[in-house]
């Protein structure tokens, strides 16, 4: 077999392979031109056309030649078609690439020849007020169109269906006084910001040779542009900005936009901790850390925070949006969305490539998730690590995904800091006016490799030959301002020298810097703390409620307003609830949950629940929302309660994005019980990045406590591999350092207490609950009224439902979740008098102490069995094995280890055949109980 061409890419004509050619080549995407005058005419406003004809006729005056009138009208229509095309497609010919490598031919339909106007530049045409002109020569119109739409800023906005929004952007872009103009003072401020950005990167490169910093080199125009967002945003009502961004330029933003002291960053560069030594935590690399600060422009203070994030690109986006939503709620800003602004900074390859970007864009107009518009800033380096645009996406721009929500897009040349600043100024005006997302796509370059130790010429040699020769942004801008007479020769050098001296002073101060407090429990988190007790310590608080509140909540949950017509089946559900409260017996899962929600709201807490079917509940169990059967009005009983706020949302069909959003909400508001519910527990797989990087590790990495609750339906009922397991084992594998709580609860009252405990303790930890499916209506999974009141609290261990004298127990079966009821029923059928079933309701932190106390009382115990429904390589077995042994040792039962009863190892979580499931279930129950000659393995 020959191999002469095996290592070469296909030729350009090979439609199945990637393109050849220079690294800056665009994707293989044809830019279509409009085919005919008829197509364009159909797109024009008919009223405008009629006015054009009338004006042309009037201009002809007393001319009797009909052809002259016809010619004038025809010229006017062609001119308006030209204007229309520039508004739609002018960005395709804009001067965007600082390196000049991205070849952008002017489309034919943007040329005078295509419209039949070439050679007629001196002829006057009627344009009806466009650019302030009633009549204008074709030459002047063409010049203005080119200057406006094909300069350093290219605007995409004609895909927006709302005419008011389009007209706003059009007016801002086409009106002379609103084009890219700054005062001399403003230009000098922009230059100073660019110089700070550049000199800071150069200083880091000089002092920390070879250290990764993911510098902004080549994109420094972003610094004055972001400052413009603060300044003009403040003038338009913004009082808080929440940022999310990846590595590129993060240290620069922290220092020169957020105002994090340079000495602190230098301290961290030298290996110092960002927190006091006694705080603990693993810490994180410096380009993942966040901060918060206040900046003032024109006497207006704006609070800013940069959310910490992992290396997983764009993962921080939903967290920022959720935190923004929470802050808007806290500021009573959910109607106008004016005071709190989310700003997300993206890389070009990530914006085009990461699906979470679209998930977050999709939130922009959804009730419960809308934040009044996010400002997206794409640092378009025209490369992703080593991947060129032609391999990174199938669309002309990385920003094209934003067209799905009709967001306007401003493409801008990063070598023109005035243009970038103008784009941000226009963006914040648009966002504050319309409450919608907007994108700035800043074309720039990456002066060094993906990190400063990388060699980019391995993969993009021609691009980096150009970059090596290309002057820095400040050099280009300095020459421009000198030519305009805004600054004198030497002024820029003086700015550099002064700033470099300041950096040297901060560098010296970093050697003695020690953080004196952790940025942790301030603001709304005041009064909360990090728990000091060990993992296994009892942390229960009294979570029972009094009889008066219990009865009041019962009336709320069972009273149907006269003007609400409910579904007849829901009527039966409410009747059953009423009987529960009348009898004090038979409280089911949904009622226990509603009591927890209602009691917390009455006590002044917020309760927020979201998921794909959370209003009704995936299993028609919750009915938090009652839909009027005549007009579909929604009645939500728990929203009628005083003091707190209850919210329940049917979320977009997203796990990754929505879970991140709720995590961000809980990050901002510890006084709300924030819950995300998966439709089925295993659907959380789609959000694994959020679970691994934020929920499990956020506190230890970034000192960010969080009380988010995940509700994951879990249980083996023969419904197949995708509707059985919430992957309990994965959560348990993440457990360490008292980071999260993992529960598998079996009674409504215990569920009630664990939800209340989540808010009543003086600290917050994420909690993962394996919620039931069949237990929602299981006849044994019921609670009494008494169990919700008085001194009752969450039980980490639940005793057997059949009372057995501890001294008579020979076999103890430990388990968690639904299988407990299968075991109890089979045990009682077999009349086994020396077998006890004990449920571990909280798997982490593992209740080793109370379990040891129970084991110590079982003086004749011979065997401990761990029984689970999941396959042996799944579920809790490998987690609890040694922990149970440790508890037995503490109880004086040295050498007693649990044996396993459950399904054999399996690659798939569960069988898809109901009959096979039933056989497996019966077998594992019998083995656990020692029946039918079965032995544990």
UniProtKB/TrEMBL annotation:
Q: What is its EC number?
A: 1.2.4.2
Which Gene3D superfamilies does UniProt cross-reference here? Answer: 3.40.50.12470, 3.40.50.970, Multifunctional 2-oxoglutarate metabolism enzyme, C-terminal domain (3.40.50.11610), TPP helical domain (1.10.287.1150)
> Would you indicate the residue range of the signal peptide?
none
Q: Which cofactor does it need?
A: thiamine diphosphate
- Matching SUPFAM superfamilies, A to Z? Thiamin diphosphate-binding fold (THDP-binding)
Domain Transketolase-like pyrimidine-binding, which positions?
587-778
Q: What does this protein do?
A: E1 component of the 2-oxoglutarate dehydrogenase (OGDH) complex which catalyzes the decarboxylation of 2-oxoglutarate, the first step in the conversion of 2-oxoglutarate to succinyl-CoA and CO(2).
Query: What is the organism field in this record?
Result: Qipengyuania gelatinilytica
GO molecular-function annotation terms? oxoglutarate dehydrogenase (succinyl-transferring) activity
Q: Which Pfam families match?
A: E1_dh, OxoGdeHyase_C, Transket_pyr
Q: Which NCBIfam families match?
A: 2oxo_dh_E1, PRK09404.1, PRK12270.1
InterPro entries according to UniProt: 2oxoglutarate_DH_E1, DH_E1, KGD_C_sf, ODO-1/KGD_C, THDP-binding, Transketolase-like_Pyr-bd
Q: What is this protein called?
A: 2-oxoglutarate dehydrogenase E1 component
Region (Disordered) residue ranges read 1-30
SMART domains, A to Z: Transket_pyr
Keywords recorded for this protein, A-Z = Oxidoreductase, Thiamine pyrophosphate
């Amino acid at each position: 077999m020959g191999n002469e061409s095996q290592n070469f890419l296909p030729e350009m004509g090979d439609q199945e392979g990637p393109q050849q050619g220079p690294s800056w080549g665009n994707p293989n995407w044809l830019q279509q031109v409009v085919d005919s005058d008829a197509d364009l005419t159909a797109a024009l406003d008919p009223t405008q056309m009629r006015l054009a004809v009338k004006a042309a006729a009037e201009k002809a005056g007393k001319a009797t030649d009909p052809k002259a009138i016809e010619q004038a009208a025809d010229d006017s229509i062609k001119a308006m078609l030209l204007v229309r095309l520039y508004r739609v497609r002018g960005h395709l010919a804009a001067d965007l690439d600082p390196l000049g490598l991205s070849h952008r031919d002017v489309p034919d339909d943007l040329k005078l020849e295509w419209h039949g106007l070439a050679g007629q530049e001196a002829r006057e045409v009627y344009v009806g007020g466009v650019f302030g002109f009633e009549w204008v020569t074709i030459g002047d119109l063409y010049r203005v169109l080119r200057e406006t739409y094909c300069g350093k800023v290219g605007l995409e906005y004609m895909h927006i269906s709302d005419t008011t929004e389009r007209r706003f952007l059009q007016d801002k872009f086409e009106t002379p006084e609103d084009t890219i103009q700054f005062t001399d003072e403003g230009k000098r401020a922009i230059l100073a910001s660019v110089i700070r950005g550049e000199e800071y990167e150069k200083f880091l490169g000089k002092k920390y040779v070879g250290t990764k910093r993911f510098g902004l080199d080549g994109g420094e125009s972003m610094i004055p542009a972001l400052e413009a967002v603060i300044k003009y945003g403040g003038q338009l009502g913004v009082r808080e900005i929440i940022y999310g961004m990846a590595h590129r330029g993060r240290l620069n933003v922290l220092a020169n936009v957020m105002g994090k002291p340079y000495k602190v960053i230098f301290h961290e560069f030298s290996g110092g901790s960002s927190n006091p030594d006694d705080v603990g935590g693993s810490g994180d690399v410096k380009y993942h850390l966040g901060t918060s600060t206040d900046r003032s422009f024109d006497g207006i203070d704006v609070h800013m925070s940069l959310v910490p994030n992992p290396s997983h690109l764009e993962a921080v986006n939903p967290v920022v949006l959720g935190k923004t939503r929470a802050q808007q709620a806290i500021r009573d800003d959910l109607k106008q969305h004016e005071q709190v602004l989310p700003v997300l900074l993206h890389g070009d390859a990530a914006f085009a490539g990461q699906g979470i970007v679209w998930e977050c864009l999709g939130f922009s107009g959804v009730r419960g998730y809308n934040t009044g518009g996010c400002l997206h800033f794409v640092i378009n380096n025209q490369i992703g690590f080593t991947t060129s645009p032609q391999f990174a996406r199938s669309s002309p721009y990385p920003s094209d995904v934003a067209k799905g929500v009709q967001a306007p897009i401003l493409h801008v040349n990063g070598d023109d800091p005035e243009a970038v600043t103008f784009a941000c100024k226009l963006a914040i005006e648009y966002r504050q006016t319309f409450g919608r997302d907007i994108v700035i796509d800043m074309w720039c370059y990456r002066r060094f490799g993906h990190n400063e130790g990388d060699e980019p010429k391995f993969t993009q040699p021609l691009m980096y030959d150009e970059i090596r020769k290309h002057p820095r942004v400040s050099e280009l801008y300095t020459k421009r301002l000198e030519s305009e007479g805004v600054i004198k020769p030497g002024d820029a050098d003086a700015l550099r020298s002064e700033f470099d001296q300041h950096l040297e002073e901060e560098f010296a101060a970093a050697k003695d810097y020690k953080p004196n407090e952790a940025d942790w429990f301030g603001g709304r988190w005041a009064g909360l703390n990090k728990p000091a007790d060990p993992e296994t310590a009892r942390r229960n608080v009294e979570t029972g409620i009094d009889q008066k509140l219990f009865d009041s909540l019962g009336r709320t949950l069972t009273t149907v307003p006269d003007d609400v017509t409910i579904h007849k089946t829901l009527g039966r559900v409410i009747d059953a609830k009423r009987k529960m409260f009348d009898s004090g017996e038979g409280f089911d899962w949904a009622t226990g949950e509603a009591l927890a929600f209602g009691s917390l709201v009455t006590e002044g807490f917020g309760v927020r629940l979201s998921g794909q079917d959370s209003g009704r509940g995936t299993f028609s169990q919750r009915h938090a929302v009652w839909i009027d059967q005549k007009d579909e009005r929604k009645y939500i009983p728990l929203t009628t309660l005083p003091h707190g706020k209850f919210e329940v949302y049917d979320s977009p069909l997203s796990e990754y994005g929505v879970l991140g959003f709720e995590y961000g909400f809980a990050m901002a508001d510890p006084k709300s019980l924030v819950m995300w519910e998966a439709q089925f527990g295993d659907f959380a797989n789609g959000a694994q990045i959020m679970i691994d990087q934020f929920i499990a590790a956020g506190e230890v990495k970034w000192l960010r406590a969080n009380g988010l609750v995940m509700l994951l339906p879990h249980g083996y009922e023969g419904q197949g591999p995708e509707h059985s397991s919430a992957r309990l084992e994965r959560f348990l594998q993440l457990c360490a350092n008292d980071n999260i709580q993992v529960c598998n609860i079996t009674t409504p009252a215990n569920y009630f207490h664990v939800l209340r405990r989540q808010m009543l303790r003086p600290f917050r930890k994420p909690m993962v609950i394996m919620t039931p499916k069949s237990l929602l209506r299981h006849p044994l999974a019921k609670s009494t009224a008494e169990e919700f009141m008085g001194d009752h609290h969450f039980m980490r261990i639940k005793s057997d439902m059949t009372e057995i004298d501890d001294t008579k127990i020979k076999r103890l079966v430990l388990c968690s979740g639904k299988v407990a009821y299968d075991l109890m029923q089979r045990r009682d059928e077999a009349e086994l008098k020396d077998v006890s079933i004990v449920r571990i309701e909280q798997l982490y932190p593992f209740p080793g102490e109370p379990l040891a106390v129970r084991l110590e009382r079982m003086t004749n115990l011979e065997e401990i069995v761990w029984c689970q429904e999941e396959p042996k390589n799944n579920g809790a077995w490998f987690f609890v094995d040694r922990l149970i042994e440790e508890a037995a040792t503490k109880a004086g039962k040295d050498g007693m280890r649990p044996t396993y009863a459950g399904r054999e190892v399996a690659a798939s979580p569960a069988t898809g055949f109901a009959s096979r499931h039933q056989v497996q279930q019966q077998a594992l129950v019998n083995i656990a109980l020692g029946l039918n000659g079965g032995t544990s393995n």
